[in-house]
Amino acid sequence: MNSENTQVVLVDDDPAMLRILSVWLKKAGYQVQTFSDPREALTSIEELPPDFLITDWEMPHMNGLELCHRVRELKLSHYIYTIFLTVKSTPTEMIEGLEIGADDFLSKPIQQGELLARVRAGARIIDLERRLGQLARTDYLTGLMTQRVFYEAIAKEWARVERNRSPLSCVMMDIDFFKKVNDVHGHPSGDAVLRAVAGLFHKNTRAVDVPCRYGGEEFCILLPETTEEQAARWADRIRRELAAIEVRADNKLIQVTGSFGVAARGDDTDRPETLVDQADQALLCAKQTGRDRVVRFQDIRAGGGARCAVGGPQALLADLTARQVMSPLADCLSEKDTIGQAAEFLLRRRVNSTCVVDAEGRLAGIVSEKDLLTAMVSLDNWRQPIRDVLKTSVITYDADTPVETIYQFLCRVSIRRVVVVSDGRPVGTISRGTILRLFRNLVAAADADGRQDGESPLESRKRLVESSRQLAAISRDFLAEVEHASEPTALEVAGRAAQMQGLLNDMLACSPAAPASDVVATTNDSWQESAAE
Questions:
Q1: Backbone angles phi, psi at 424, to 5 degrees
Q2: All domains of the chain, ordered by start, with CATH?
Q3: Is the pLDDT confidence value at 445 over 50?
């Protein structure tokens, strides 16, 4: 720690002592403030915390112990190293001082050499503490704040903004197709790109701004005293600078772009997390509408320039719930079933995992082929209950959850399937394949031209009903064959499936302009009629 930048507060009711100590410290290069009244010193410390507090023990109005205690109660930006000047030297008195928050003691009469040596020793401790704190507060790769420190900073700024009613904006930024950079050029090249992006934020932010690496290739910047319009202009300048950067890695030049979401605190922004979430929603919109752009949250809310729903999953999945899209669960295992029974269940149904329920029918977990294999350390385990091997950490969604929520989750994680529950009971599953099939059917419905020339909506509906009845009849016949006759051959199964697929295509062709909710509802009604008959 450089003594020229080290701030020292001296507190003593003896003017002569204050003058002598101040001269010694100033000659050594320290910046010194002196106070004869501890109350004035406390006010100054709260407004501008020093690095050192050197205080007498016995003083009128407030003694050194109380001053030290009050300082330790303050929420300051950094730790203050405190040294007591005292004639007290008994173990009891020393313990009392240490317990209250003192770091060191100087016995009177004070010697110049000892004073400066103890201050230098304290400076080494302060320097180490601040370096460790800096490492904990910043991301090692980019030098930006971590997400945890960002939320600490935004909480403090939020309190100030609520008092002053001043503007506050948040910008979320994501590097476009960053995974491709890592996959093609390697992680060292990806790290170089991250450092280059962080360099832009270091260069283009003010002292009051709070930039952080939010996670992976995502960054978040808090901009105090900045409206949403001003923040959007700032973000667009960063976007243009980023697009012009060339990062050299392995004798190759890498160019990347970024997507930005901008939000500002409004009257309905109830907490800091809401502001960040709004910026994140705007970022998601920027990515869905082509990337390499800046989207403002107010534009989304007003339905203005950034219409994310056009051509995006929001439009395709509008008004759909998990109940309408899920693959229904025909059967489940009980947690009382054995590993052998579970293996037979999975093998007969040609699935690799299934839900397990408790005695009341509520979801207890999931068991997979891998779980069964891992448990088979001996043949005796074949009779072991599956409750001993099932996985209880299951991702579930209520049946009334919007499908768009599940779609976004499956796009972001490696999990392939989620369980749909109603009152805690598993009723279906939704996988990536489930949603892909939904998209395929929606495309078929949108592209089909099944309505004949001059055909009225009523006639088209009649064709839809007829196709549905045929599908139900084929399903009933096939079910009867499977239940009461011999096991069907692969050719028979393929033939029945082809018939059903053709009828499904006919049904979709009868509703070329139907929204997603209508297409799904019609299909579900047909299957429900089939089950009722």
A1: 85, -5
A2: 3-136 (3.40.50.2300), 147-308 (3.30.70.270), 323-434 (3.10.580.10), 449-532 (no CATH)
A3: yes
